[in-house]
Fold this sequence. Notes:
The complex is a heterodimer. Chain A contains 4 helices and 6 strands; from the N terminus they run βββααββαβα. Chain A is α+β, with helices and mostly antiparallel strands. Chain A has one domain (2-111). In chain A, strand 2 (10-17) and strand 3 (20-27) form a beta hairpin. Chain A starts with a strand and ends in a 5-residue tail after the last helix. The longest helix of chain B is centred in the C-terminal third of the chain and has 18 residues, at 338-355. Chain B has 2 domains: 6-118 and 156-312, no CATH class; 323-438, Alpha-Beta Plaits (2-Layer Sandwich), CATH 3.30.70. Chain B is globular and about 75 Å long. Chain B has helices spanning 22-28, 42-54, 62-78, 91-104, 124-129, 160-167, 182-192, 199-212, 262-269, 338-355, 401-408, 414-417, and strands at 6-11, 34-37, 81-84, 111-116, 150-155, 172-175, 239-243, 248-251, 279-280, 285-287, 292-297, 300-304, 307-309, 314-334, 365-370, 389-398, 422-423, 433-444, 451-456. Helix content of chain B is 28%, strand content 25%. In chain B, strand 9 and strand 10 form a beta hairpin. By secondary structure, chain B is α+β, with helices and mostly antiparallel strands. Chains A and B meet through strand 2, strand 3, strand 4, strand 5 and helix 3 of A and helix 9, strand 14, strand 15, strand 16 and strand 18 of B.
Amino acid sequence: MAKVPLSRIATARSGDKGEGSNVGVLARSDAAYAFLVEHLTAERVRRHMAAINPGGVRRYEAQNLRLLNFLLEDSLGGGGSASLKTDAQGKTHGLAVLRLELDVPDAVLASVPAAD
Amino acid sequence: MTRPSFVRIANGQGFWGDSILAPVRLVREGPVDYLTLDYLAEVTMSIMQKLRARNPNAGYATDFVRLVERILPELVEQGIKVVANAGGVNPRGCMEAVAAVIAKRGYQGVKLGIVEGDDVFGRIDELVAAGEPLANMDTGAPLATVRERLTSANVYLGAFPIAEALDQGAQIVITGRGTDPGLVLGPMIHEFGWKPGDHDLLAAGTVAGHIVECGAQCTGGNFTDWRSVPDMARIGYPLIEMRADGTFAITKHAGTGGLVNESSVLHQLAYEMGDPRAYLGPDCTADFTTIRLRTGGRDRVEVSGVRGGPPTPFFKVSASYANGFKAVGELTISGPEALAKARLCAEIVWQRLALDGAHYAPEERLVEFLGANTCHAGIASAEREDPSEIVLRMGVKGSDEAKVNRFGMELVPLVTSGPPGVTGFAGGRPKATEIIGFWPALLRKSFVTPKVTVVTVGA
């Protein structure tokens, strides 16, 4: 078991979705995906992103893509051209989620090729 | 008619403002059957509607006309076909401008097609009277709340009108608003004879279109493991090699920079995703949980297994409305104690505005300290103590244009009347700009009839 940032076992892509954003978290291995399905809950992401997203978070799963898709419902300060934020399109939200620190079992860490 | 075994479709423009060199390189650095180009964002339609109100010949993407002129020899010599949503709110005006540059260059016989019928801005009252509520599909708010402020309204048309223009021999097809994946799905329908009920095939083409619709975002751009991406300066834009059975490869021209691997394709599949089981479009519903990816060689990913279902009975409407004004400005504040001084500066601005009677509600104003963890606010592992300098970024919004402009006058004075080390104000006072509100709605398909026209240059 080791405390590591989510980026150690997953990659991510984010973008705008109406007045919120989506963050697709892509597990780097099957074992990492199984671990994340259990531990990277919508509530965990909601708490981590609370200062950026005062709204709720919904999660969708796509095992074939090793993907957990999180919808952050109010993360853009109004969205579109109404937002005053620098990141009005949620482009950096994926990297923000990848900073989340998790206690990851050794077997899961061993299943992931060494990061570049 | 003989059907090809596969067709090569390249996307050279992911959004308004994308690289102007990308489509040029795509037609020069390797074989391509179709070049697709996406110029329209949600706010673009509103801007184009305003341009057209001032000048009936305007309201389309003028970048596209310059691009066609630049790559015309390649298009003609290699027989490359082009599908672009460059028409904006005036596909016919765009076609006439393209025809003029082709004629000027002395090429005869090139066929141009346009797709019209997406623009319902002039029909709103008729549609409402006919029982279409056009309520906001995200919030449920009734159209009446913005009716008098609407500035554009277009439906996202599907791919079949594009295929029809190609069937009629068009080499360059110009559309208004349509779905982004439709730009690549149209050529597939044309080449392989896919039909409206072929939901799995249409879903496969939609998935292919989704992967390439943001250009280099599937070839190593905006990629988590960015250190592994070679030669990003010469990043290759994506190519689809689609087969008649709906299996396809994502690749790029040999010798270009960037990379195509399962991870780069997965990154883009996740982009702007909602429910992965139901990617809704005007021609089909695609189920992303059925997608299978496999490495097919260097910079090549094979995609198969895509399943789809019927589309909904609705077109999505993308409408826009005038939603007030905003102004944003920046100052740079050097250390020592940059962050403390930046916080003081922000407080001074609000206090001085209040002295002059200008108050802004919390939801109408924003302060950011760029360099002190703005993008990842509240995330402890991103915090850094005492940055050596800060960009102070402040903004306000509201319905009162004069009040928004009043804010813009209060930043520059800080250079001489605030703490020491304030600089970097080169752009003049921030001015109020219009906020374009976005109004998504649904419209029954029976109310919309796409219209396809094909003309021959010089005929």
